[in-house]
Design goal:
- This protein is α/β, with parallel strands linked by helices.
- It has 10 helices and 8 strands.
- It has a single domain, classed as Rossmann fold.
- It has an 8-stranded mixed sheet with strand order 2-1-3-4-6-5-8-7, with helices on both faces.
- Helix 5 crosses helix 6 and helix 6 runs antiparallel to helix 9.
- It is globular.
- The protein starts with a helix and ends with a helix.
- The N terminus is likely disordered.
- Bound molecules: iron/sulfur cluster and magnesium ion (MG).
- Iron/sulfur cluster binds next to loops.
Length: 285
């Protein structure tokens, strides 16, 4: 059975789910006004709409403010080590293709120490959603520039700005072979939840970059709500057009920027070995 069929079967057999069914009830320790509140609201709405129950969903994160998110949900969660969310999520999805696997984290976690995993996750095309909450700063470790920080962003830690050309995550994802690339905004939980559902249901690796303001270390990002707008062109179907769209955009257009009309199939659904087989292979003596 394909993942899509599994998902459809699950939603048919599940009672109607509500966003609150995906909340653990624990109160997030994020700063008041942090964009990540909007992202978790969008994720819970998207999961309810998708229709698989919390015990069939696994959220895998790295380290950072946004990577705390799995603990605030009722899904299974894995709060791993810095930059390794995609490696853990890939291993999990390959051994348990029946589960809905979502990797998530921040720009520092995913694009710096996790940058290599990001490239190869796009290339490997394992069926999962990767959600990156990008605030262009390392929030949890007190405001260092990240790979997406503007070169002239002046701060106490980097006076005058980092002076480095920022990383363009969408451009890199397309170049590395991702077939579904989108951008959402934490201040638009309804629009973001639609992108999340589409990304979850996409047959292969789906990347959704989320503009999620860090109100503490980047208070000027409060202005993002006036800067974002829906993408004015339909999703590109081939990489050169998608790349041109991404490069000509100011980074505030929201929606699906690239949706391949001939996506490569993800790797086989059935694991080539059971967990017991793998344990046997690694047994000592
Ligand atoms: Fe959010 Fe920034 Fe506070 Fe972290 S430091 S919780 S990213 S507002
Ligand atoms: Mg960050």
């Amino acid at each position: 059975m394909s993942d899509v069929a599994i998902n459809a079967a699950a939603s048919e057999s599940s009672p109607t789910l509500k966003a609150k069914d995906f909340s653990s009830g624990a109160h997030p320790i994020w700063c008041p006004g942090c964009g990540d509140y909007g992202v978790i609201a969008a994720l819970e709405r998207g999961l309810a709409k998708h229709g698989r129950p919390p015990h069939e969903v696994v959220l895998v994160s790295g380290i950072g403010c946004s990577s705390r998110l799995p603990a605030y949900t009722s899904c299974y969660g894995f709060h791993g080590v810095h930059g390794r969310a995609l490696a853990v999520a890939a291993g999990l999805k390959l051994t348990r293709p029946d589960l809905e696997v979502i990797a998530l984290g921040g720009d520092g976690d995913g694009y710096s120490i996790g940058g290599n995993h990001f490239i190869h996750a796009c290339r490997r095309n394992i069926d999962m959603l990767y959600l990156v909450m990008d605030n262009r700063v390392y929030g949890m470790t007190k405001g260092q520039p990240s790979p997406t920080t503007e070169p002239d962003w002046d701060s106490r830690i980097a006076p005058g700005g980092p002076g480095l050309r920022p990383f363009n995550p969408l451009q890199l994802a397309i170049a590395a072979g991702a077939n579904f690339v989108a951008r959402g905004f934490a201040g638009d939980p309804d629009g973001l939840s639609e992108l999340i559902v589409e990304g979850i249901r996409w047959p292969g690796f789906a990347f959704v970059e989320v503009l999620s303001p860090c109100i503490t270390f980047r208070p000027e990002q409060a202005a993002w709500k006036k800067m974002v707008r829906p993408l004015t062109v339909p999703p590109a179907k081939d990489p050169p057009v998608a790349t041109a769209t991404v490069l000509s955009d100011d980074g505030f257009s929201l929606g699906v920027l690239y949706r391949s009309d001939s996506p490569r199939p993800p790797p086989a659904e059935k694991p080539s070995a059971t967990l017991t087989d793998i344990e046997r292979q690694f047994a000592l003596g």
